[in-house]
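User: Predict the structure for this protein chain, please.
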Amino acid sequence: MGADVRETLKGAVMRLEQADRLLVLLHYADGLSVSEIAVLLDEPKADVSDRLDGLRWRLAQVMRDASAQARPDQVEVQGSDDAAAAVA
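Assistant: Here is the predicted structure, written as structure tokens:
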């Protein structure tokens, strides 16, 4: 993973609400399983898993948006052929 990607991801994680940031860091930085986090936070395992799924989706969206901004010439345009031609 390149330094720019790492910085973008770090920035996205730091912008999360504190509880969400904690969840991401416990799982990915500290390596705790969903079960371990559920016990630690005294929350149902399904809730922790659902929250992590949503956070992964949000972070992936931020990364896609950042990638599109960094390389607009490589973003696939959906829609009419005129719009695709305008980008090319």
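The longest helix spans residues 45-70.
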